[in-house]
Amino acid sequence: MKVQTHDNGWTAMVEDIKLQEANDMDAQVIGRLIADHTVVVIRNQNLTALQETAFCAKIGKVESYNERLAEAEATELDEAGKILYDKVKGILEPNTDNSVIRVTAEHDDQGRPGLFGHASELDWHCNQAANSWRDPIVWLYGVRGTQGSRTSWINTILAYNDLSEELKQQYADIKTINGYSSEKGYSEEVFHKAGHDINTDWTPNIVHTNIAGHTGLYFPFLQMHQVVGMNEADSKEFIIKVRDHLLQEKYMYHHDWQDGDVVISEQWLGLHKRWHCDTMDQRVLHRICFNFDHIKF
Questions:
Q1: What pLDDT digit, counting tens, does each position of 38-50 carry?
Q2: What is the pTM for the complete model shown?
């Protein structure tokens, strides 16, 4: 295995490895790279869905929909519940312990599309912004039809480091209320209401230190409802101010997809965005969420 740094100076590029043959030591190295660099890119892979989850499980516990599906199956669902249950079943790759999500407009054998299959851009976000139990890692694997599509990432460690000491002190105790809000104009096409409801019970600090000791900004600005202690106008002004700081090119990595690409990203100190893609009915990515349970820091 060979590790290089992208021309942007921070994204980790891993070469000369077949992930289906990776051992625990390889996983340790890649796990630490994820926490240190926020984005790890591994190209030219040829993986089955089970091989994907097997590698992710070497780094930490893989999220599964089993419990939620079982709970739904044990409940007498109303019509809306049945529709949501069917949607969830449709986004999952079959025979993968309900851990691999299909990101695509391509229909499964029962005519159901995957997650986020719309052609319009999927704007800046992170995994489960409103939930304290959120998994800190997202895996994306280009299965087929990915060429010509682009996803970008922001590294908020770099953005935080560039703040003045005065701003770092000002931001240290600022907390936010996060979640999906139709009133804010985020269409359900872009952010599914399930899992993104506004959560007033968990108000994380915007300054966050991750598991590897790196400090950055936890700032999913499109998934923010309000800054704690500020009115709506002041919250909006503050969010826009920090957003504009984050959206500088020097903090970004742009990935132009090819089939067989893997991009793994840390979800506390990074955001990502999928750009407009007219071929979502042909483009299939696999998405897996997991944590750092097995990595030694």
A1: 999 999 999 999 9
A2: 0.94
